[in-house]
Specification:
5-stranded mixed sheet; single chain
Length: 511
Amino acid sequence: MLRRLFLQHASAWKTSGHLDGSHEDVVTALVREAREETCVVIDPVDVRAAVTVHHRSPGGHSRTGFFFEVRRWEGEPQIAEPEVCDAMDWVCLDALPTDMVAYCRAGLDAYAAGARLAVHFQMSGDAIAYHPDADRLRIVPNVTGQPPVSRPEAAVVEFAEQAMGLHRGPAPAATAGPPDAPGRPAVRMATPADAEGIARLRSAYVLSEPLNEEWIQRSTAELAPRLTPAGDARAFVIDAPDGSLAACALGLIHPVLPAPAYPKGLAARVHVVATHPKLRRRGCARAVVSALLHQLQAEHVTLFEFHASDEAAPLYREFGFASSPALMRMTRLEVPAVPEERHSGPTRLPPEQYAETVMKATGFACVYFTDEDDRPLQLHAVYSSTHPWQMAGGTMDPGERPWQTAIRECEEETGITLAGPPRLLATVFGLPGTEWPYSTIGCVFDGGRLTAAQIRGIALDPAEHDHLRVLPLEEWEALMPPRDFARLSAVAQARRTGVAAYFDTWDWGNE
């Protein structure tokens, strides 16, 4: 368990994480949170459903929590976010800490009782931290009608005791199984003989335009010697029933200057990941990529690069890849000595090349709140002296739509859950500048008028904001840069008039 530092209501032990958006399912969220908070890597196939808890907070907000059991992982658990959590410990289910978040305690108590479903509806006035006098846990009987057991199955108890050092028997290894463990696709390391199959998978399912036979053979001849132990290419493949390749993952190793993050000076680009369409949705891509990353890491590669499609991005985030807005690409071809015959009409670039020529922009969404007297509410940012006072909101995550971003950011930054429907107050555009290299396009939505009680109940994330204020519009001018106040004024006018604002001078670093 981890002990969270910055809970406003209690410094408490917790077990839970959150979904990053509608693009993320609960198992993906578990894998991501475990890696981000404890540095351990969990294979989704090792995740088992434990118990589901329908929870209502003292403030009346309802949510559903999914608790999972994981008995196998990779890595040594450690605190990965010391600014958020200050302690980590193994605990027994029958000796849980008293200073726990009540919702997390309810889930573990339900799991220890053998329940599959539980209800935990807190009452107004209850504390966020667990207290035995306000235990709201209600277990829903299992479908068999059997009374819940007092403890989990013996294997689970034995595993927990071994992990804590309370059991004399040998502890099970905390590592993921091999890629070809039962229930998983059979993966093998590629040899030079697989070069043509990899080239054909790349041509058919990766490139925007398939290669002709000449280029497939040139690719094969180039790749084959590089797949030897002395070469710079590593690949893993899955064989199809007809003897061809069903899936492959190809990585190319290249040197970089050493740094603390890559002390051996080795990086790798995941150049090809492809699966035959008839064999997709069977875990093939996950299996070959996992095997490739393990092999590259064993060869002291610590910097990995990959260009993922939007559809595949959630998978690679599970492995630890993160998006980088700084990535830029360019293709320079040699000018032929003899001019080629020119064809009339415009030249059409392949989609991936054309995409490199268009404007790059980031998207964001904000929520405009006022009190019942129409005085704007603003949050004070701890991370920006340039823009100290801000509306609740933030940058869009991959796969999100603006209203989804507004809902997520608002709940993360204030604890308020937006009900909708969305009401757009303003669109905001900014050109790139010294503060940010890309244009920005954003939407500001109306969050409504908050009562005094709702404002007092706002729970700030101390990693982003340290306090809030509600002031008449004119008093905000002295506290904000001119363009921030101009945007706030445009949004306030849109609320008053009912006509959405168009604000296109939100430029970066051009005060």
